[in-house]
Amino acid sequence: MLFLAASLGVSAQIGQARRDVSIGVSAGVTMNSVSFNPSVSQDMKTSPMFGIALRYNCEKYFTALCGLQMEVNWCKLGWKEDFSKSAHPDYHYTRDMNYITVPIMARMGWGREHKGLLGYIMAGPQLGFLISEKEDMTPVLADTDASISLARRAQYGKAAQNKFDYGITAGVGIEFNTRKVGHFMIDGRYYLGLADIFNNGKADYFGRSANGTITVKFTYLFDILKTKQE
Questions:
Q1: With CB atoms 3.0 to 4.6 Å apart as the test, which of 14, 32, 95, 204 could cross-link to 77 if both were Cys?
Q2: Confidence (pTM)
Q3: Who contacts 43 (Cβ-Cβ below 8 Å, separation ≥6)?
């Protein structure tokens, strides 16, 4: 009995239940490129992003604060082609692709839970849906009768064939916690797209056309449910 009581006491110290729910807003920048096969020379395309976030902290295990974070974001992805090493360096091509993305991430943090700094890592699946797209290009690239070989590539004038996107996202960040004002976070993360923008069958030109995104974002959360502290 004494051994059982001691074991229960140790377990209670190791895992401390939390019921902390926070909600808020976020803003940042995305740096996107598309992994094409055959490859397409690109620069990183930088665009703004905005969203809302919901976080649930469920347990403090040893020194790690464990929880889940879900977001709904508007992101402008797509790609920007690099013609600097081509025969036509004055050409330009950019495609803006507006997505609604939903990352659902497990989160672990170490540091000051209630007042001060806390560092964290997070990872999980991300879903996305393309809501609109727009091309901006040198006019000759859209000319189907142009004789310049560079002007005819499979992606020009071709709408995205797959609007649904999915993949894996992971990142690290720092959070500043206050007891009354809320939580201020800044993090960086990388998204690896597993879905292709264009069809990739044997009769299609591209075997792969998936998003790869670096995101740097600031998030503010305020508590709507907080575990009572003894």
A1: 32
A2: 0.88
A3: 33, 80, 81, 82
